[in-house]
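Quick one, tokens below. Sequence please?
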């Protein structure tokens, strides 16, 4: 199974397609998982493309400032993000994840002062 199929498999099992605008999306994803992404028609691939390239949700620092991260998660980094983030609707990149860990540490310190 290639990386695209693994991502789609994760998305199907975690209900990512439940709210898709086009009702057939999940069916196409399942076909890609069973037969391989490359077996799909160009139109079917186009339906799935937005799910294979997701912009980082970014994070908000303790001062309430959102970092507007524009990192795009694709391939391995997207699959990593799915495994790392608890909410499949809220994915962040490696760098934001590091930063969030740093803020969490700061919050702990502030609350103990
Ligand atoms: Zn980010």
């Amino acid at each position: 199974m290639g990386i695209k199929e693994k991502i789609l498999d994760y998305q199907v099992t975690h209900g990512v397609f439940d709210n898709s605008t086009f009702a057939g999306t999940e069916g196409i994803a399942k076909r890609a998982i069973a037969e391989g992404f490359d077996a799909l028609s160009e139109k079917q691939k186009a339906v799935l493309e937005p799910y294979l390239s997701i912009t980082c949700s970014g994070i908000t620092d303790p001062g309430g400032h959102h970092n507007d991260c524009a990192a795009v998660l694709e391939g391995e980094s997207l699959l990593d993000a799915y495994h790392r983030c608890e909410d499949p609707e809220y994915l962040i990149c490696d760098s934001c994840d590091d930063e969030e860990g740093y803020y969490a540490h700061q919050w702990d310190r502030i609350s103990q002062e």
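The beta strands are 53-55, 72-74. The mean pLDDT is 94.
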